[in-house]
Amino acid sequence: AVEKPNSFEQITNYNNFYEFGFSKTDPADNAGQLTTDPWAVEIGGLVDRPGSYSVADLAPANAVEERIYRLRCVEAWSMVIPWLGVPLAGVLEKAGVQPGAKFVAFETLYRPEEMPEQRRRSMDWPYREGLRLDEAMHPLTILATGLYGKPMPNQNGAPIRLVVPWKYGFKSIKSIVKITLTDRQPVTTWQAMQPREYGFYANVNPQVDHPRWSQATERRIGAGLLGGRQETLMFNGYGDQVAQLYAGMDLARDY
Amino acid sequence: MDRIRRLPTGVVWALGALPLALLVWDTLAGKLGVDPVRDIEHRLGRTAVYFLLASLCITPILRMGRVNLVKFRRPLGLLAASYAGLHLLAWAILDMGLLWPQMLKDIAKRPYLTIGMAVFVILLLLAATSSNKAIRRLGPLRWRAIHRWVYLAAPLAVFHWLLAYKVWPGKPLAILGLVAILLALRLPWLRDGHQKVKKTVIKSGG
C-alpha cells in the first residue's frame, strides 16, 4: 500500500536531535543557529582516497533522487518521509573501500557553540553510529541532503545525514562530519550508554521489545486523536529487501 | 495568611480545573503541535504530579510556617487523583487505542507502566477513603495509616515519569528532588529538631 507522507510541518517540528535539546520541539527551536555551509565530511580509515569532501562532492545535485521511506523511532512512533539523497554505496565506492573494511563508523558534528546540549555533559558527545559494510552498501541506505524537494532543514540533520529505513531512527545519524571504514565493529553512542536497551543492529523488530516498552505496535504521527496504533512490521516493512543480510543470525541476541 | 485560610475550598477546585480547561482549549485550537496525543497524555500526568506535590506541602507549611491550610489538602489530593485518572484514560484510549491485550501485557511486563498503575491504585484508594464518612468509619488511626501510602505514591509517580525517557531529563529529576525534600521534612529528627528550634525562638522572644 502506498502510504501518505507526513506533512513538511510535522517532519520538521517533531525531532529527536539531542544536540539541540531533549524535547521534540527543541531542535526546531534551537537548530536555526547551526552553520551548515561551509561543510566538510572527512572520509578515512580503510579507503583508497581518504580526504575531506564537500556535500556537493558526495551528493551532486544531478545525482540526488527522491526516496519515500517509513521512519520508525525506537520510542514506538513512526512517520513517512520523502527524502532526497544518494545511495551511500556510491559515495563509499568513490572513496574506494579497501578489502579489509568490514564496518562503517559515522560521527556527528561537535560544535558546542552552536549545539546547546553539547555544552552540558548529558551524553558522550559527539554522537556516533555505525553499520556493517553490507548494510552500508545496501541500495536502500542513503545519505540524505533534503526532504520534500528542499534542502535538509537543520533540525532534520542538515546538511547531510544517514537514512537506513529498516532500522530504528537513532541509527540514521544526523549532520555527519566523519565517515570511517574500519575492520572492527564501532562503538555507537546509545549502545555505549545503555547496552541492554540499544543494540548495534537496532533493526526494527516487533518481536524484540525494548526492555522498558513494547515494540509490537507503533503510533503514526498525524493519525489524529483517535488514530490508534498500527502493527510494527519486521524490518519496518523492508524485509523483502534486507532480511537476507541477517540470514542465520539470532536477532533476539543481536538486537 | 488568615485571608487565604478563610477562602472556601471551592477556590482550589476552580483553580484545579484550570489546567484541564487550558488543555481542552489548546486541543480545540490546534495548539498542541505535531503529536497532540503525547501532549495531552503527558500534560495530564504532569498536572497530577504537581497537585500531589501541593498536597504534600500542607503539613510542612503548618509545622514550619504555622499556617493552617489543612482544609485544602483534600481537594488537592482529589485533584491529583482525578488528573491521574484522566492521564490513564488518555493513555488507554488515545495512545494505546484500547488495544487490551497489549495494554495488560505491558502493565504486567513494563516497570514504568507497572509503577504507574500502582500509583493510580494508591491514589484511587486514597480518593475513595477521603470523605468525612470514610474517616469516621475507619477511625483516625487506621485512616492515617492508609493515607501514609501517599509517601510511596509521590516518589513512584515521578519515577514512572523518569523511566519513560531515554536520558535523565532535568525537570522530572528536579521534581524528584522536591519530593525527597518534602518527605524528608516528615522524618522525626528533622521535624522534631525544627520544633526545638522554634521553641527556643519563642522563649527568647518572650
TrEMBL record, chain B:
Its main location: membrane. It is a multi-pass membrane protein. InterPro entries: Fe3_Rdtase_TM_dom (IPR013130), MsrQ-like (IPR022837). The keyword Transferase does not apply. Residues 44-157 form the Ferric oxidoreductase domain. Binds 1 heme b (iron(II)-protoporphyrin IX) group per subunit. Binds 1 FMN per subunit. The keyword Metal-binding applies. The chain crosses the membrane at residues 47-64, 76-100, 112-128, 149-167, 173-190. It comes from the Bacteria. Its cofactor is heme b; FMN. Keywords: Cell membrane, Electron transport, Flavoprotein, FMN, Heme, Iron, Membrane, Metal-binding, Transmembrane, Transmembrane helix, Transport. One of its GO terms (molecular function) is electron transfer activity. One of its GO terms (biological process) is protein repair. It is found in: Cell membrane; Membrane. Heterodimer of a catalytic subunit (MsrP) and a heme-binding subunit (MsrQ). Part of the MsrPQ system that repairs oxidized periplasmic proteins containing methionine sulfoxide residues (Met-O), using respiratory chain electrons. Thus protects these proteins from oxidative-stress damage caused by reactive species of oxygen and chlorine generated by the host defense mechanisms. MsrPQ is essential for the maintenance of envelope integrity under bleach stress, rescuing a wide series of structurally unrelated periplasmic proteins from methionine oxidation. This is Protein-methionine-sulfoxide reductase heme-binding subunit MsrQ. It comes from Paracoccus salipaludis. The gene is msrQ.
